[in-house]
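Worked example 3 (structure in, sequence out).
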């Protein structure tokens, strides 16, 4: 389990991203440590995918810096996978498209995510949840020390969502990797996280899940939906996680003193300070 002394696998320091004269990210700092699940939540268009891309060097940053630990191996499951639906493609083939792995390695990864029985099936016949599990397995064959999952529960129903988050927790426990998770949907996501960052161009609030729940900014952004979502969290989360002390505004409400217009992200905010 991670502790506050674990070194950061990846660390962003005051990064900002501008594109087309627009600020997409404003002064964001965050760290992901070994054995830790960090979740980025926020409204549509809040900059979650942009932040992931900036961390992965897929998006140019205008200010700030990103530091990665030496030998960092990242397994990335993007939000969208552009696959031509007319292209015949089995799960096995998908698993070897970009990396050559032996049969047993592929089978082990698919076993771990519970979809080994789909090995020879066409990916076009998979359910949303099965597809996400295949993509997770595909990221796992690289034996990453950092898993980056952009909306891993998309297309998955409530029960499947819960199972997927449990699986993600198990992967974290088994591999002791760091996990950076993105979601705009709040169902269950908080429960699985050590640390939550609420992003709406800038960081509105961040900290341990129970602390974010108390944040006025969180309540304003997610309203009743957010409060309802936290119920399962409060009831289940007294035991197994080892929440981190974090260098990111642990449990603090946004204390900048600015008014936030959450429907229309703007950039007058200083963002998070370390
Ligand atoms: N390359 C770009 N140039 C200009 N604007 C961009 C670019 N990439 C993203 N944007 C804009 O930045 C904003 C944030 O997009 P992003 O995809 O990061 O949001 P998100 O939080 O992941 O949203 P969602 O929850 O809908 O997936 C959006 O308004 C988007 O249109």
């Amino acid at each position: 389990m991670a502790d506050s002394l674990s070194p950061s696998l990846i660390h962003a320091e005051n990064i900002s991203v501008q594109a087309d004269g627009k600020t997409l990210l404003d002064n964001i700092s965050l760290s992901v440590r070994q054995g830790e699940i960090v979740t980025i939540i926020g409204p549509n268009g809040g900059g979650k995918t942009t932040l992931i891309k900036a961390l992965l060097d897929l998006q140019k940053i205008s200010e700030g810096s990103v530091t990665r630990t030496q030998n960092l191996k990242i397994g990335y499951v993007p939000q969208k996978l552009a696959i031509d639906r007319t292209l015949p493609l089995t799960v096995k083939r998908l698993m070897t498209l970009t990396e050559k792995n032996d049969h047993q390695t592929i089978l082990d990864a698919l076993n771990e995510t519970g979809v080994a029985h789909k090995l020879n099936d066409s990916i076009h016949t998979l359910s949303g949840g099965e597809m996400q599990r295949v993509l997770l397995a595909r990221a796992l064959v690289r034996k990453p020390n950092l898993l980056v999952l952009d909306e891993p529960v998309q297309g998955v129903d409530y029960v499947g969502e819960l199972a997927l988050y449990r699986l993600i927790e198990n992967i974290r426990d088994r591999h002791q990797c760091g996990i950076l998770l993105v979601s705009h949907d709040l169902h269950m996501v908080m429960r699985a996280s050590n640390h939550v960052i609420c992003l709406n161009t800038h960081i509105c609030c961040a900290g341990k899940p129970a602390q974010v729940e108390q944040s006025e900014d969180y309540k304003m952004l997610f309203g009743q939906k957010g409060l309802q979502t936290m119920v399962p969290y409060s009831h289940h989360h007294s035991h197994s996680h080892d929440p981190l002390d974090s260098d990111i505004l642990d449990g603090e409400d946004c204390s900048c003193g600015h008014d936030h217009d959450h429907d229309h992200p703007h950039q007058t905010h200083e963002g998070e300070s370390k």
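Notes: Helices lie at 48-55, 91-96, 103-112, 128-140, 158-175, 209-213, 216-236. Residues 19-20, 22, 24, 42, 44-50, 184 surround adenosine-5'-triphosphate (CB under 6 Å).
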